[in-house]
């Protein structure tokens, strides 16, 4: 059976798994590697060590190659990346975006919870609504108003918000509720 080789990406990945090898090739119009332009990336996330990624020339394109041993040290989080080119003291920002660095599944412990924030909140809200969680919110304060518990109606609104967020994260189509009233005409 022949070996299967993954194709090289031609754009920045939306997600990186810590411990995986990174590889992509980027073509940047007007800033060819063959003309001496060097493309670099900086990834920033609050409280995390910045990550710098350099490229090498691949003809006119810029090739990214980061070893698995390097990405293994990447801290899981959502990062904002910015790419820029440099040449002879000149620097030009090219574009920016976000990338999720995911934990290395081979090094995770049983304590790892892969659920997103929205999934965790939805489970907690549903537990309160079903009476499975006793007094989950002792008190909270918004401005000069203080409450001991979130009212049922507010929990229902929060549930709808987080349910929609979970659907969005999973790529499920959004459902629209159309109110219907039965009665005399």
How does this structure look, described?
The chain has 3 helices and 9 strands. The chain is α+β, with helices and mostly antiparallel strands and 185 residues long. It folds into 2 domains: 91 residues, Immunoglobulins (Immunoglobulin-like), CATH 2.60.40; 54 residues, no CATH class. The strands form 2 sheets. Strands 1-7-6-3-4-5-2 form a 7-stranded mixed sheet. The longest helix is centred in the last third of the chain and has 19 residues. The mean pLDDT is 84.
Please state the second-level CATH architecture of the largest domain.
Answer: Sandwich
CATH topology of the largest domain: Immunoglobulin-like
Q: Class of the largest domain, according to the CATH hierarchy?
A: Mainly Beta
Tell me about the largest β-sheet. Answer: 7 strands, mixed
Our count of domains comes out at 2
The count of helical stretches stands at: 3
- What is the 3D shape? elongated
Number of strand elements: 9
Q: Helix and strand succession? A: EEEEEHEEHEEH
Mean pLDDT: 84
Question: CA-to-CA gap between the ends?
Answer: 71 Å
User: Reading side by side through the largest sheet, how are the strands ordered?
Assistant: 1-7-6-3-4-5-2
- Unreliable stretches, pLDDT < 50, 5 or more residues? none
Defining traits:
single chain; 185 residues; alpha+beta; Immunoglobulin-like; seven-stranded mixed beta sheet; two-stranded antiparallel ribbon; 3 helices; 9 strands; elongated
List the helices and strands and how they pair.
Layout: E1 15-17, E2 22-26, E3 38-44, E4 51-58, E5 61-66, H1 68-71, E6 77-87, E7 90-102, H2 117-129, E8 140-142, E9 145-147, H3 152-170
Parallel strand pairs: 1-7
Antiparallel strand pairs: 2-5, 3-4, 3-6, 4-5, 6-7, 8-9
């Amino acid at each position: 059976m022949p070996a299967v080789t993954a194709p090289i990406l031609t754009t920045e990945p939306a997600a990186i798994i810590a411990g995986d090898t990174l590889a992509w090739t980027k073509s940047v119009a007007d800033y060819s590697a063959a003309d001496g332009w060097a493309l670099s990336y900086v990834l920033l996330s609050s409280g995390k060590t910045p990550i710098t990624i350099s490229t090498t020339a691949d003809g006119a394109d810029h090739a990214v190659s980061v070893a698995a041993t390097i990405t293994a040290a990447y801290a899981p989080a959502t990062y904002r990346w910015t790419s820029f080119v440099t040449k002879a003291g000149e620097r030009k920002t090219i574009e920016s975006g976000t990338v999720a660095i995911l934990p290395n599944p081979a090094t995770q412990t049983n304590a790892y919870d892969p659920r997103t924030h929205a999934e965790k909140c939805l489970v907690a809200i549903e537990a309160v609504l079903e009476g499975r969680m006793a007094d989950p919110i002792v008190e909270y304060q918004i401005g000069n108003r203080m409450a001991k518990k979130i009212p049922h109606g507010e929990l229902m609104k929060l549930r709808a918000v987080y349910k929609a967020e979970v659907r969005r994260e999973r790529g499920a189509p959004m459902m629209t509720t159309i109110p219907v009233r039965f009665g005399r005409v």
